[in-house]
Specification:
It is built from 8 helices and 3 strands, in the order E-H-H-E-E-H-H-H-H-H-H. The protein is mainly α. It has 2 domains: 9-64 and 162-176, no CATH class; 91-157, no CATH class. Strands 2-1-3 form a 3-stranded mixed sheet. It is globular and about 50 Å long. The two termini are 17 Å apart. The mean pLDDT is 88.
């Protein structure tokens, strides 16, 4: 069932981490990031208007009349992009996003998933910042509102490897190819 009238359909993925990666990273990369200037110009519209949910089977259900103009994106290369200084642009953010999903954050809650990028290095640092509401930048506070101590504990205990990320990205690409 389509959740809203502007939806282009529903993508169901059996992995909470894959849904979180889609919601917090991939859709943005398709529309405003890595593939922003790809042809055709409105290639992103179908993908970014999908409702993406966790379910038992990976599948794509298009709304009637929806046409997909582009269905091939090199998602497994996203985490390989580097800044000039050699640090990775997206890898750490994608791993942190998946760890928040593992910790129990709703994988479709983009605002809370956005906290992943700003999580302090340790649980102790998180607790200090949360208690004083004093983050590296003032704007971070809004993302941390829904990150409870329990979620933070699970986040810092969670492991998510590059192998798991590649599996999630390949899963997403396989569903996209069915469009």
């Amino acid at each position: 069932m389509v959740a809203n009238k502007n939806s282009s359909g529903t993508m169901t993925l059996p992995s909470r981490t894959a849904v979180a990666l889609w919601v917090n990273e991939i859709c943005g990369q398709i529309s405003d990031g890595t593939w922003e200037n790809s042809s055709p110009r409105n290639h992103w519209q179908f993908w970014c208007r999908l409702d993406v949910v966790v379910g038992p089977d990976a599948k794509l259900e298009k709304s009637s009349g929806q046409w997909v103009q582009k269905k091939t994106y090199a998602l497994t290369r996203l985490h390989q992009m580097k800044f000039d200084d050699g640090t990775y642009i997206l890898r750490d953010r994608m791993i942190a996003t998946a760890r928040l999903a593992i910790a129990g954050v709703d994988p479709t809650d983009r605002e809370t998933l956005s906290a992943a990028e700003y999580m302090p290095t340790t649980l102790a640092e998180f607790r200090t910042a949360k208690a004083s509401n004093s983050w590296a930048h003032d704007f971070i506070a809004k993302y941390m509102t829904n990150v409870t101590d329990e979620v933070a504990e699970k986040f810092y205990a969670a492991e998510y490897t590059m192998k798991q990320m590649n599996a999630d990205l390949k899963l997403i690409m396989s569903v996209m190819h069915t469009a």
